[in-house]
Design brief:
Blueprint: E1 22-25, E2 28-32, H1 36-53, H2 60-65, E3 77-83, E4 93-101, H3 102-108, E5 117-118, H4 120-123, E6 128-137, H5 144-161, E7 163-172, H6 181-191, E8 200-201, H7 219-225, H8 228-235, E9 239-240, E10 245-247, E11 252-260, H9 262-279
Helix pairs in contact: 6-7
Length: 280
């Protein structure tokens, strides 16, 4: 989150009285971006993953800067993982995630997710809500242990700000929904959000998810085919909204994921309890 936005989302991030996230494990340090240079480093990693490795289409400005950015960046908190073995920040960023809470969205003119989904039911939720997005990890660091560190950081952030509900667009790597008919149908039949919390793809972008009859879906096979991030949300009790959205700029088909934070924080508290017990 930033105090002043610019077109590339690299204004100096807001500082907090104490770090909402400050975790260390081996060579890794996980915290929020604290300088414009660190935000730019997260955008450079996003460019490497989304544009160079995947099939996102950069704008001319993004291509010149070798950074993936948008107008929302300047209002977000950027969670970063640094590897000390790669040098000093900001050049050592090996993973990133961006968060935007309700008050920041009000200043930004809305949530990014609202460009794809009607999220009015989520915005009307009485507790604190938070959007997650732009998650990516350097290809050399995609082991499960590194993702667990990121989830611990999310839990710390959620606890610090009292977040009750998380949501965001999660991507499946194709622009041809018929290629992932089994996965989309599985999500629709087994993980559709309850009506009170159900986003719906905007009418002009709506893609039908129940593409197969329910009896034609192999749940085990469909679950295995989902990206790790989507499976992670589901393990935390996550739901999906009604309708997928094809994002041609990123070369993906998106679903809107909704997660109540109870399981995130409870899992983290149990983890901390085990750690403390081991120290006695």
């Amino acid at each position: 989150m930033t105090t002043a936005a610019d077109a590339r989302g690299v204004a100096a991030p807001q500082t907090y009285p104490r770090r909402p996230v400050d975790l260390r494990s081996r060579n890794f340090h996980l915290r929020l971006a604290e300088t414009a240079e660190e935000v730019a480093a997260s955008q450079a990693l996003r460019y490497r993953v989304f544009v160079e490795e995947m099939s996102a289409r950069p704008t001319a400005e993004q291509q010149a800067a070798k950074r993936e950015f948008d107008d929302f960046d300047a209002y977000c908190d950027h969670l970063l993982v640094f590897d000390a073995a790669r040098g000093h920040p900001p050049g050592a960023v090996i993973a990133t995630y961006r968060f935007m809470r309700r008050e920041a969205a009000a200043r930004a003119g809305g949530f990014y997710t609202a460009t794809e989904y009607d999220i009015s039911r989520l915005e009307a939720y009485r507790g604190e809500v938070m959007e997650l997005g732009r998650s990516c990890v350097h290809p050399d660091y995609r082991a499960g242990a590194n993702m667990q560190l990121v989830w611990r950081g999310i839990a710390d952030y959620v606890l610090h700000f009292g977040v009750d509900l998380m949501f965001g667009c999660a991507s499946l790597p194709t622009t041809r929904p018929e290629e992932i008919a089994g996965a989309l149908s599985y999500l629709y039949y087994h993980h559709l959000a309850p009506p009170a919390l159900r986003p719906r793809a905007l009418p002009e972008r709506y893609v039908k998810m129940d593409r197969l009859d329910s009896e034609a879906v192999d749940p085990k096979l469909a679950l295995q085919s989902l990206p790790p991030l989507v499976k992670g949300y589901l393990r935390l009790g996550g739901f999906v909204g009604d309708g997928a959205v094809v994002d041609y700029d990123f070369g993906t088909t998106d679903v809107c994921v909704v997660v109540k934070t109870d399981m995130v924080t409870d899992k983290y508290r149990r983890h901390l309890t085990r750690e403390r017990a081991g120290d006695d």
